[in-house]
Every structure is written in structure tokens, then in C-alpha cells.
Specification:
mainly beta, 6 helices, elongated
């Protein structure tokens, strides 16, 4: 590709030095960050002679030592710092590179290198273009990773993400100055994913120069890559293909009545949860499963746990983690992430004791009264990696099995047609397994994400007059009942803006 071709002001070939100055022995090199950043507008001019630490010095001899350590490359790390939006989350976020130029000034000439190598690529549409082109990408996460074992390295105990390599075919010892220019790709954000994932979101990105050991550590760590969309190698071959359910920008809404097996006020806002799941395929099977969501309304005095059961074959084995965040925060709540093991089906406990986590002041009712100002709900995430890919037809179909456990009553409440799964639940003791009442009305439903929950104590049949006919026809008629709510009986909650 033209953007990765090498341009030089001289066609001369150079003999690479095979010896380093004693003071720059490989064992004494330590990765360090630069003072200059890639700015929030997606452009950066990095002076390679200006470390971020004023006590350190950088010059041609030092850069030559790093080049030799990396087999003829200057290798950089970027700390990806993107806001969570759409499919970008603290678990996985990315940017795409439009150009990289290494400008080297020697006593008698200036040489520019435009060739660069990134670990991943993706076909993306530049803003204003309808044609997807293969661009280099950089992927990371918001976690703090102990990247380097070298205590003198600025990557020791810190969070760094993706690697950028620039081949350099001559000695750098007599350098006068060195600048690295980086430009992120302005993508067509309206196209959805993968463009929506690889946009840059208005934050500075810091950059560091790497030793070979630290570069190898990041290459092996590959933070965030397992959950990024359309991850390709340099040839354009797919590494992981993602399927988003219900879509890359859509959510399932799970809504519950918690007085089971009694019908109660039937306002269907005791707990309302929005969630999205993505399946990552490698080869012929599903290798990765990830998801995220929000608690969006709560109109109950009872305390709940919220689970998502993803049924897998008995032989499935893997591992993963769950995260839970306070409203508006990108830092996990204390005690998270929590490690989980997959042995057969994955029963994910994604929100525990919600009465303690989701309140409006002292009220257990949140986003359910007309006069209440909408409160942002807590957010959760999960990620799973299976040891062996599972054939797609052996993964239970979406929307899977989202259910609640009610602490005060001991009952679990599932979608109609599902079965109790918790060994300690009262359902097992009572032998109660149907999640419909005698009139066929459910206690849990999945609804498209333009649903607006009824206000507290307003029967869903009053808030949505065509709902009763929908239930009585067993879903054969009035399938769009949720789009015709009575304005003064429902609560608009713009959770997609959170």
C-alpha cells in the first residue's frame, strides 16, 4: 500500500554498525515515554530527542541502540485512551493510522521513512469515501498491565497497548534531530462498525520508545484485540469475525415483574436492563464472547441479582472476567474485575445486590416516577475466551437467558419457556418452573430498545393499550405494541447516551 511505502531522500545503501557504545549496552536500555503526545485532534509531532522525564536524555546514539536492539526497527508503543462509546469499551478500544512519517535530520541530509508495521489491520472507510481500504490499526484496553519486568522501564507496572514498528536501514548515531509524525484516520462514523470502533475520540494518546523485550511483551499481551471488530492481518486475512446481537448499536431490553408467582401491579419496571452480546468467531467456531449493558430502571422494594445464562455444550471450557462500573465511571467498582471459569454453559452474575448499587438518593425507585430526573445507571461488561471454538449452532440463540434472583422471596424469574437453574432457589423447592401466570401473562420479557418502561404502579396494559391483545394472540398480532405507549404513562430513558 502506498501509505506504507518507504520514501528516502537518498538511494545510498548503508552498512549497519554491529557494535554499540559500552554505555548503551542492550541490558541497560529501558523503554521511555516522550514529552509530546498524539493530540486529541488525531495528529502528533513527537520530538524523539525530548523524553517525558526531564532527567533523561535522548540522542542519536541512544536511538541507534534501540534500533539495534529491535533488529533494525524503531519500535513505539501507544497508550490507547478512547472514551467508551458503542462497541468501544474499557475492555477494547482502537484507532486507525492514516500516515506515519519518521523524519531524520543528519549533518548533510534529511531522510524520511513512511513505511510502518502494526500488529493489526482493518478495512475502513475514510470520512467522505465510500470505498473501504486496508489501514493499520492499534488496539488496546483501559486496564493497567505490568508490561515490563525492568524496574527502570517506564512501561513497568503501567498501561500500554499497541506496538508501531518503523524499519530504519541506516545508523542513527550522528543524528542532529528526529521527529515522528502520526496521523489517525478520520473515519466515516455513520457507517457503524468497524469504523465506529476505530475512530479517535478526542483524547491525547501518549507514546513511548520500546526495547525489544518490552515490544515482545506487548506483542504477546495483545490487550483488547480479542474483542475488536474486523481484526485483520497485513494481507487482509481475518483473525476474528464479530457478530453483534441484536446489532453493533442496538440492545435487548430485559424487563421484569418481581412478585412472582403473584402478578402484582404488573408495571414491568421492577428491574429494566439493557444488554448487548457479541460472538467472536475464529475458523469454524465461536472462540470469544463479550457483552455490555446498563441498569436503566428500578421500581421495586426488593433486592435483585441479574444473571445472563449463555448455554454452551457440556464440553466447553474457558475463562473470562466480569466488570461492574459506577454510573459515568470508567474505573471498575472495588472487587472487579472478577475472574470466571467456563465449564459448559456460562451463567454470568453481572449485577449483584442491585438495591445497593442503583438508587435515587434514598429511594429504591429509579427512573420510574414522572417527576424523577433520569439517573444514569451502573454499567457492566463481561468477556469470555473458550479454549476450543464452539460450533455456532451449539451456542444457544440470542437473546439467551437473562434472569433475576429475588433475595427476599428466593425465586428466580426467567423468560417464559426457560427453566430455573440455581440450586438454592425456591423454584427448585416448590417445583415452580412456569414463568407465565394462569392467563398466560409473562413475568419477564425481552423488548426492543425503543421501549419506554411504564411509570411506577401503572399496569403495562394501560401504558401500552395493544399489549393485552399481543399476549392473548400469543404474539401473532400487535407485534409493535411497544412502539405505541401513552405519553403520560411511560418514562423516556436515553440510556444510549450514557
Amino acid at each position: 500500500m502506498k501509505k506504507r511505502s518507504m520514501l528516502k531522500s537518498s538511494g545510498l545503501k548503508y552498512i549497519l554498525p554491529c557494535l554499540l557504545l559500552p554505555s548503551l549496552a542492550h541490558s541497560e536500555l529501558a523503554s521511555f515515554r516522550f514529552k509530546d503526545n498524539i493530540r486529541s485532534d488525531g495528529v502528533g509531532t513527537i520530538n524523539l530527542f525530548t523524553p517525558g522525564d526531564r532527567g533523561k536524555k535522548s540522542n542519536g546514539a541512544l536511538l541507534e541502540a534501540f534500533r539495534n536492539d529491535n533488529g533494525g526497527n524503531l519500535v513505539f508503543a501507544v497508550d490507547i485512551s478512547e472514551p467508551s462509546s458503542g462497541s468501544e469499551t474499557p475492555t477494547s478500544q482502537g484507532v486507525a493510522l492514516e500516515y506515519v512519517t519518521l523524519k531524520l535530520t543528519f549533518p548533510e541530509e534529511v531522510v524520511s521513512y513512511n513505511s510502518f508495521i502494526t500488529p493489526t489491520y482493518s478495512f475502513l472507510k475514510r470520512a467522505g469515501s465510500d470505498v473501504p481500504v486496508l489501514y493499520g490499526t492499534m488496539i488496546g484496553d483501559a486496564n493497567s498491565n505490568r508490561v515490563s519486568s525492568n524496574a527502570n522501564s517506564e512501561l513497568n507496572g503501567s498501561s500500554w497497548d499497541s506496538v508501531l514498528r518503523i524499519p530504519v536501514d541506516r545508523s542513527l548515531e550522528d543524528l542532529v534531530s528526529a521527529e515522528l509524525e502520526v496521523g489517525f484516520l478520520p473515519v466515516d462514523k455513520k457507517a457503524g462498525d468497524p469504523e465506529g470502533f476505530y475512530d479517535f475520540g478526542g483524547r491525547d494518546e501518549i507514546i513511548a520508545l520500546l526495547t525489544a523485550n518490552d515490544a515482545t511483551s506487548l506483542d504477546e499481551l495483545v490487550p483488547g484485540r480479542a474483542f475488536a471488530p474486523l481484526v485483520l492481518d497485513e494481507s487482509g486475512s481475518t483473525l476474528t469475525t464479530w457478530t453483534y446481537l441484536p446489532s453493533s448499536t442496538g440492545y435487548y431490553i430485559a424487563s421484569y415483574e418481581d412478585l412472582y408467582p403473584n402478578r402484582g401491579d404488573y408495571d414491568f419496571n421492577d428491574l429494566v436492563v439493557a444488554y448487548q452480546v457479541a460472538l467472536g468467531s475464529e475458523g469454524d467456531g465461536v472462540k470469544h464472547i463479550r457483552g455490555n449493558g446498563h441498569l436503566i430502571a428500578r421500581g421495586a422494594a426488593y433486592d435483585h441479582d441479574w444473571h445472563l445464562l449463555i448455554e454452551l455444550p457440556e464440553w466447553a471450557v474457558g475463562h473470562g472476567k466480569t466488570l461492574f462500573f459506577e454510573p459515568g465511571s470508567e474505573a471498575p467498582l472495588a472487587g472487579y474485575p472478577k475472574d470466571i471459569a467456563v465449564l459448559g454453559s456460562a451463567n454470568l452474575l453481572l449485577a449483584e445486590h442491585i438495591a445497593d448499587q442503583f438508587m435515587d438518593g434514598t429511594s429504591t425507585y429509579v427512573n420510574t416516577f414522572e417527576e424523577q430526573t433520569v439517573q444514569q445507571g451502573p454499567r457492566f461488561e463481561f468477556s469470555l475466551t473458550l479454549d476450543v471454538p464452539v460450533p455456532a449452532d451449539e451456542v444457544a440463540p440470542a437473546p439467551f437467558d437473562p434472569f433475576i434472583y429475588v433475595h427476599e422471596t428466593g425465586y428466580e424469574i426467567h423468560l417464559a419457556g426457560k427453566n430455573p437453574v440455581l440450586g438454592h432457589s425456591r423454584n427448585r423447592l416448590d417445583g415452580t418452573g412456569s414463568f407465565r401466570d394462569q392467563s398466560n401473562f409473562p413475568f419477564a420479557m425481552i423488548i426492543p430498545d425503543d421501549f419506554e418502561p411504564p411509570l411506577a404502579a401503572i399496569d403495562i396494559g394501560l401504558a401500552y393499550p395493544s399489549f393485552v391483545e399481543y399476549v392473548e394472540s400469543e404474539g401473532a398480532s400487535q407485534k409493535d405494541w411497544y412502539q405505541r405507549g401513552v405519553a403520560n404513562k411511560v418514562k423516556k430513558i436515553p440510556f444510549k447516551n450514557w
